[in-house]
Each structure stands twice: as structure tokens, then as C-alpha cells.
């Protein structure tokens, strides 16, 4: 069996994650960027997000095959318990449960941190992504009509959301991911998520 590792991303993973992401920018509307970021810009994003939120990488036999992360949904105070997520899997590695495993881990880790809501924006049309997110427990929240222009066409962005916990009472402050990163609970969540990957 191949060796599968799912863990928090480190600086040593950045070049391979960027190489995986770049085709999504250049060839698809999955990303709203026009040009792939430089390695300096990609490193800046990783450093910024991981100060508070998880960024996970999946390696199979040493090769980066997918990664996913959470980012702030909005920057104003009242939104601090909501995040947006992004997951990218190497094109040739689709349909092996990698994205589902990364999501399963993110759900657990973000819940541990005290977050309540996850949102994802999906450029329309993308029926496969919609079905996948529904299967992961997301529901349609709304859409930004003709809000994105790429490859010579205006496109809608569908928003889907998932609740991580009941919305009862005032929320407690969230815990920065570096404070729990090395805990046994995080290790267990990552190991359990790996079991969802199949060959």
C-alpha cells in the first residue's frame, strides 16, 4: 500500500503546493486569480493564514497530492467565528477520497478551535463540486450573480455553507491553530481522516 500522510503544511511543502495550484489558475475557473502567484506571495499567504488557521497537506509516497486550508470569511469582528475553505487536489489524483479526507480533518480541527461556520465559493457551473460539497454536509447559501469575469465570460459564484456546531448562546474566543497543532486530538483527527483515502 502507498504511504499516505496528512499533516499541517510546512514551509518545505510550499513549492510543491504551488505547482499543484498553478494549473487551477491558468486552466480553470476554480480559482478567481488570472496569474499563478509567485512563490514569495504563496509563502506570504501560508504564513499569514497559519498564524490562526489550519493549512493541511496530503502526501502519497512523498508526493504532494492535495492541500486545503481555512481563511477568514470576513475581517470585521462579528464574522470571526466563520471561515472560508479551499481544497486543491492534483488532477490525476481525483476520486480517491483525498479532498474528502482533507475536509474531514478541517471540520474536526476548526471545531476544536471554536469556529461555527464554513463557507465555500464555487464558480458556476461546476456540478461535480456542488455534489461533492453537498455530500460533505454543505447547503446552498446563495449566489453572487455574474460577479466573476474570467476567460472572456461573466460567471456566477455559488456560495455553500456548513455549520460545525449549534448556534446557541454567545461564542467563546477561537483558539489559534498553532496552540493545538501538536496535541494528540489533532493527531488523531488527521489519522482518522487518512482512512477515508482509497486506491
UniProtKB/TrEMBL annotation:
Gene3D superfamilies xrefs: 3.40.630.30
Lineage top rank: taxon: Bacteria
Keyword DNA damage: no
Keywords: Acyltransferase, Transferase
Domain N-acetyltransferase: residue ranges: 4-165
Alphabetical list of CDD domains matching this protein: NAT_SF
Protein name: N-acetyltransferase
Organism expressing this protein natively: Butyricicoccus faecihominis
Amino acid at each position: 500500500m502507498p504511504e499516505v500522510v496528512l499533516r499541517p503544511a510546512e514551509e518545505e511543502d510550499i513549492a510543491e503546493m504551488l505547482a499543484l495550484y498553478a494549473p487551477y489558475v491558468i486552466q480553470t475557473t476554480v480559482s478567481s486569480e488570472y496569474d499563478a502567484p509567485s512563490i514569495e506571495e504563496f509563502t506570504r499567504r501560508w504564513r499569514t493564514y497559519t498564524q490562526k488557521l489550519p493549512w493541511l497537506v496530503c502526501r502519497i509516497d512523498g508526493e504532494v497530492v492535495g492541500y486545503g486550508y481555512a481563511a477568514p470569511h470576513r475581517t470585521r469582528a462579528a464574522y470571526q467565528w466563520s471561515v472560508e475553505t479551499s481544497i486543491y487536489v492534483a488532477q490525476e489524483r481525483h476520486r480517491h477520497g483525498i479532498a474528502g479526507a482533507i475536509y474531514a480533518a478541517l471540520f474536526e480541527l476548526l471545531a476544536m478551535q471554536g469556529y461555527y461556520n464554513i463557507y465555500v465559493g464555487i464558480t458556476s457551473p461546476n456540478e461535480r463540486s456542488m455534489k461533492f460539497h453537498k455530500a460533505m454536509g454543505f447547503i446552498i447559501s446563495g449566489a453572487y450573480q455574474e460577479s466573476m469575469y474570467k476567460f472572456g465570460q461573466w460567471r456566477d459564484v455559488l456560495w455553500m455553507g456548513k455549520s460545525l456546531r449549534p448556534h446557541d448562546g454567545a461564542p467563546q474566543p477561537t483558539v489559534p491553530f498553532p496552540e493545538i497543532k501538536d496535541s494528540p486530538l489533532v493527531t488523531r483527527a488527521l489519522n482518522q481522516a487518512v482512512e477515508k483515502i482509497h486506491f
